[in-house]
Amino acid sequence: MAIVLADHQYGKAECRLVRVVRDEPRHELRDLTVTTTLRGAFDAAYLDGDQSGVLPTDSQKNTAYAFARASGVGSPEQFGLALARHFVADVAPVSGARVEIEEHAWDRVDAGGTEHDHTWVRRGPEVRTAAVTVDADGEHVVSGLKDLVVLKSTGSEFAGFLRDAYTTLPETHDRVMATSLVARWRYAGAGRTVPDDVPWDAVHASVRAVLLREFATLHSLALQQTLWHMGRAVLDEHPALAEIRLVAPNKHHLLVDLEPFGLDNPGEVFVATDRPYGLIQATVTRDDAPDAGSAWDTGAGLA
Ligand SMILES: O=c1[nH]c(=O)c2[nH]c(=O)[nH]c2[nH]1
């Protein structure tokens, strides 16, 4: 029996990076949180304390800022690809790089009917996400969003469910449905490299719009059904996407019993609870989707 070093990876987590494009009076702004992760021949650092092959996480951070200055950010996906390709191509011990990016959206301030050139207001908790992996297996991009908080005040039911000795939930044919959606989608990709001309921003905006439209327009019999419709519509309308993964906490809004006060409550007063919450998850995929390879591999099993 031998004790061996198993999986390992390392990198710089959560570099806060804001890039301003100020070539014109009307500035552009992208606000990112960038995490780099390198995989490869780093065993000696763990086994022998040998740093000769270790590119410091500090250098990885500096690379992100230098690339942002030299080439711009573009979209999170483009920036992630540029960084991941660089680490794999130019840093000898690196066999695989994963770059995870969160983008925090800013809207231009409305300054009396016109959008201000260089003043923004933060859009809210919603975050755009991108995870780029470059390794021997090829290039993978997973785009997404998280903390997209939505609520509908009718058009949602939950009834006809399995009952057992522990079931107390009343059936409802009209309830509030709310969630804080996480969605991540994978591109089918024809080859081993991601093409340079993918309109990342436009695809993201379109997928987001489809998700919101389906949440709004489907008369929902359960959050499970809503997720299926969201995922199917996204793949229907985006042939370039192979798979979408959806995670939806059911942000319960419980009808308050106002009878003790002589009041009825026809779906008007709710207590919004934050825990516990139902957690509904689904992957929607094409049955002929190409293999995902390492697209989803965060190395999360390491922690
Ligand atoms: O949309 C729902 N799905 C469930 O599985 C569930 N379970 C529950 O208690 N409420 C709900 N709502």
UniProtKB/TrEMBL annotation:
Protein's pathway: Purine metabolism; urate degradation; (S)-allantoin from urate: step 1/3
Sequence positions that bind O2: 57, 250
One of the record's GO molecular function terms: urate oxidase activity
First-level EC class: oxidoreductase
Binding-site residues, 5-hydroxyisourate: 57, 158, 175, 224, 250
Pfam families: Uricase
Enzyme Commission designation: 1.7.3.3
Reactions listed under catalytic activity: urate + O2 + H2O = 5-hydroxyisourate + H2O2
Annotated catalytic residues: 12, 57, 252
Domain of life: Bacteria
Transmembrane segments: none
Record-level GO BP terms: purine nucleobase metabolic process; urate catabolic process
PANTHER family on file: URICASE
NCBIfam families per UniProt: urate_oxi
Function in brief: Catalyzes the oxidation of uric acid to 5-hydroxyisourate, which is further processed to form (S)-allantoin.
Protein name as annotated: Uricase
Organism of this sequence: Cellulomonas cellasea
High-level lineage: Bacteria, Bacillati, Actinomycetota, Actinomycetes, Micrococcales
